[in-house]
Design a protein that fits this description.
The chain is an alpha/beta fold. Strand 14 and strand 15 form a beta hairpin. The longest helix is centred in the N-terminal third of the chain and has 20 residues.
Length: 378
């Protein structure tokens, strides 16, 4: 065995994970590759467009990289686990009127679980992926922080990694810009992945039509079509196509004309009602998050100032941790945040470091929102 140790590398068939494996070999690690088969596109009823991931072509690309670089490569079928922890969760959240983030669920319940399961079987001390993020140790804490290439940073989707997982995880490309990663791939002779496009869509919905996917998964959703669209004052202004097909902050596709822009500000599954409001009514002054996981500190102090990132591409809002309980926290924004969406992840940063995160349970709107005579939280 190498003096550096043996590492199991999750290989998606893309340039980042391929270069991650190459860099680890250069550093002297003994590398073993693993690719996870997560989803059957024939069942999904979709056709690959070239910007998804985890397809048969991607598996072939990962295997070709392993063959080129001379290390073992395994393919594991985890479709059953993926369906339970990612697909079923994805559908359930939309049916509950929330907007899920399946990539975070996949990282938490699938990727790292499978990686450590097989790492232990194969005698690997470490696991590695091609994520653009970094890890360091300070005292007795392992700190997750942003990748060098801020435009490609993926620390947001990794907030739920636990201390024991971070201790055994390596992110080899976290210290590189994406252009540098592609150049390394070319220099290593990995031309067939060097210019491969990044993955943007949800891997099991490569045509990006999540509404069509939900309808195929739950045909009963068609019965929800025709529910009311009302304003925050209670005025009926239209009919919707089924509340699971809408998300907080949505402006287009509402089928209403009110003389000024209106946005979805609340989704009420119980009454099958979509509430729309003006842009001012889309802002929240605080949010409650649950299923929290703290990384930088065992438990952050109340009153701590952070930057709260509430979507994967969100720049973040200054906020204060107002209250911390065993499994939840209340975060108050210094200035109101727009389109705080239940079901999405909120990740809290101190500089480049991930303090921790959680799932947005509810938001506290700046302006009261009502369904009928009932005050609600967004």
């Amino acid at each position: 065995m190498s003096k550096k140790g043996r590492v199991l590398v999750a290989m998606s068939g893309g340039v980042d994970s391929s270069v991650a494996a190459y860099l680890l070999l250069q550093e002297g690690y003994e590398v073993i590759g693993i690719t996870m088969k997560t989803w059957d596109y024939r069942i999904a009823g979709t056709v690959r467009r070239g910007t998804g991931c985890c397809t048969v072509d991607d598996i072939h690309d990962a295997r070709a990289v392993a063959l080129k670089l001379g290390f073992p490569h395994y393919v594991v079928d985890i479709r059953e686990e993926f369906k339970h922890f990612v697909i079923d969760y994805f559908v359930k959240e939309y049916v509950q009127g929330r907007t899920p983030n399946p990539c975070i669920s996949c990282n938490t319940f699938i990727k790292w679980y499978v990686l450590f399961k097989y790492a232990d079987k194969l005698g690997c001390e470490y696991v590695a992926t091609g994520h653009h993020a970094r890890i360091r140790k300070e005292g007795n804490r392992w700190i997750l922080y942003r990748g060098k290439d801020r435009a490609k940073d993926q620390s947001y989707v990794l907030w739920n990694l636990k201390q024991h997982e971070l201790a055994r995880t390596i992110f080899p490309v976290g210290n590189y810009y994406k252009r540098e990663v592609r150049q390394i791939a070319k220099e290593a002779g990995l031309d067939y992945v060097a210019d491969k496009p990044d993955s943007y869509e949800i891997c099991f919905i490569p045509d990006n039509d999540y509404r069509g996917f939900l309808k195929r998964q739950v045909p009963e959703l068609e019965k929800l079509e025709g529910g009311l669209i009302i304003t925050t004052s209670g005025k009926v202004v239209g009919r919707h196509k089924g509340y699971p097909f809408y998300t907080i902050g949505q402006r287009r596709g509402l089928g209403i004309a009110l003389g000024e822009p209106y946005y979805v500000v609340h989704i009420d599954p119980k009454s099958n009602v979509i509430v729309v409001g003006t842009k001012d009514e889309l802002y929240s002054k605080a949010m409650e998050i649950d299923t929290t996981n703290w990384i930088k500190y065992e438990k952050p102090s109340e009153g701590m100032e952070v930057i709260a990132q509430i979507r994967s591409m969100h720049k973040g809002n200054k906020a204060v941790i107002e209250q911390v309980d065993d499994n939840s926290a209340v975060i108050r924004f210094v200035e109101p945040a727009m389109a705080v969406t239940p079901g999405q992840s909120a990740v809290l940063y101190e500089g480049e470091d991930v303090v921790g995160g959680g799932i947005i349970a509810k938001a506290e709107p700046v302006k009261n929102i009502k369904v009928g005579n009932e005050k609600v939280s967004a």
